[in-house]
Amino acid sequence: AVTAIDPDAAYQAPSMRELLGVQVWAFQAFSVTASLLGAIGLVLAFSGTYAVVAFLLAQRTREFGIRMAIGATVRQIVAGMMGETMRTASIGLGSGVVITFALARAFGGVIPIIPAFTLRTYSVGLLVVLAATATAALLPSLRVGRIDPSSALRAE
């Protein structure tokens, strides 16, 4: 229609394939950005958990020395630290899932781009965070086995 009116007009109509390509590119860019932000968040959560558990272990060195001197095994001490860490992580993850479910239900009907709450997606995310938390807690906890009970008791 533009060519019929003015054959010299500088107008070019994009094809449907080009229009869809731009939209697909935008969704892919947002998806990559969200994935990258999620990975950064997971690394920060991992490093934060690692640092907190390492700090708690350093603060409780004397306690672990006493426990080992009276017969506690490294396995028992590591299991205790893992239990404490996973209990705390479970409280945080449970709260997060409840809040996420509530927000997804509240905004799912209002904003059409928000996907429906699917159990599989959130379960995979939950398992990834739990695995990262368990690994972050296990690494410093395994150092407890190298504590010499007599030197731990002498330390202040």
Explain how this protein is built.
The protein is mainly α and 156 residues long. It is built from six helices and no strands. Helix 2 packs parallel to helix 5 and helix 4 (74-108) runs antiparallel to helix 5. The protein is elongated and about 95 Å long. The termini are far apart.
Question: H/E order of the elements?
Answer: HHHHHH
Low-confidence stretches: none
Note the overall shape: elongated
Distance between the termini: 88 Å
Q: Would you tell me the overall average pLDDT?
A: 86
Radius of gyration: 27 Å
Structural class determined from secondary elements: mainly alpha
Could you give a short account of the major beta sheet?
none
Portion in beta strands:
under 5%
Q: How helix-rich are the residues, as a percent range?
A: over 70%
Distinct helical segment count? 6
How many beta strands in the DSSP annotation? 0
Concise synopsis of the structure shown:
The protein is mainly α and 156 residues long. It contains six helices and no strands.
Question: What secondary-structure arrangement, pairings included, does this model have?
Answer:
Elements: H1 2-5, H2 16-59, H3 61-69, H4 74-108, H5 119-141, H6 149-154
Question: What are the main properties of this structure?
Answer:
mainly alpha, 156 residues, single chain
